[in-house]
Amino acid sequence: MPGTPAMGAFAAAERARLLIRDRPLAAGVSLTVSAGVCDLGRAGDAATLVRLADGALYWAKHNGRDLVCLYSPGTVREISDAERADRLERLRSLEALRALARAVDARDPYTQRHSERVAQLARRIALALGWSELRADALHEAGLVHDVGKIGVPDAILLKPAALDAAEFAQIRRHAELGAQIVADALSPEAASWVRGHHERPDGAGYPDGLAGDAIPEGARILALADAWDAMTTDRPYRRGMAAAAALDECRRCAGSQLWATAVEALEALVAPGGPGAGAQTPGTPGRSPGWIRPVS
Length: 297
Fold this sequence. Notes:
12 helices, Hypothetical protein af1432, elongated, 4 strands, two-stranded parallel sheet, single chain
């Protein structure tokens, strides 16, 4: 923005941020942006200007997102070329994984956007449980790719409308372990453990490791609930999705055995009428996930 002082550029970026935030892309689909601003008075040359503005951008992202940050040497640490290259490589890896996860969802019209819905709900539950914005964002990233291991499951099994036999179910069970291996280089070790453990159960009857109780990573326990909720409240070829009230009843019934009771309580507050997450996960939205294979009997 030639001839514009730093505060003028900051004001312009802030106007753009608010316009984007306040205008949904579609029903139930919104977008936020973060921005970093710097001026040549601080930088001196074009290359430094971009580097310092980049540092301000990352400060905005790591302090809650949906923010505009004006570079200040007392607040924002300059990002080195090595850090920038590392972040760029990680971003490229994550984008590739997201594309692969979308391809998995697209194999069946009843699972389209399943991973996005799971990621969004998992993040809301994590925040309700007191997680920081940064850690909840990491859980959101894990949620987006939690089912990427299903790329190794044949269509004949993944799309089978009838009950799976023992051999077929054994193949389905491999997707959590395979998914963790696929995401290992793009996510942190902790986030990869959330992907691996999202089908573990508090009673120890889950997979792939048969973990129980607090031995299951907390992020995995949250993903398990978000995955189950989406499977229950969305349509399948052979049934309509449950209404929210019925799905909550099922979650309460399975709390402590199949699902983490603390997360179920947080979910109940989110989807209660008038709650902060009310209407975010609506029943009857197209989507089919083998994640909720069957209720506990």
